[in-house]
Amino acid sequence: MDYVQYVLNILIVLFVYIVIVKIYMEVANYVGERLGIGQFVIGLCKKMRRDK
Q: Which of 7, 6, 9 minimizes the C-alpha distance to 17?
């Protein structure tokens, strides 16, 4: 019975970790879209390629 409980605890921790990471990614995506960070980074990469 201890092994079953141990495995269930690991699965619960894994599930909670996945949910927290998913929420964090959604928030980061929303903030990135609002601030335009993605376009800024893409523009920097294009400038670095042109300069070489």
A: 9
Question: Looking at the whole model, is its pTM more than 0.85?
Answer: no
Work out the burial of residue 48: count CB atoms within 10 Å of its CB; fewer than 13 is exposed, 13-18 middle, 19 or more buried: exposed
Whose tokens are 């300069």? That residue is: 51
Domain boundaries, the chain: 1-51
Q: What is the pLDDT of residue 38?
A: 82
Residues of the chain with pLDDT under 50: none
Backbone φ and ψ for 44, nearest 5 degrees, come out as: -65, -45
Please tell me the predicted confidence (pLDDT) of residue 52. 62
Structure token digits, residue 27: 């928030």
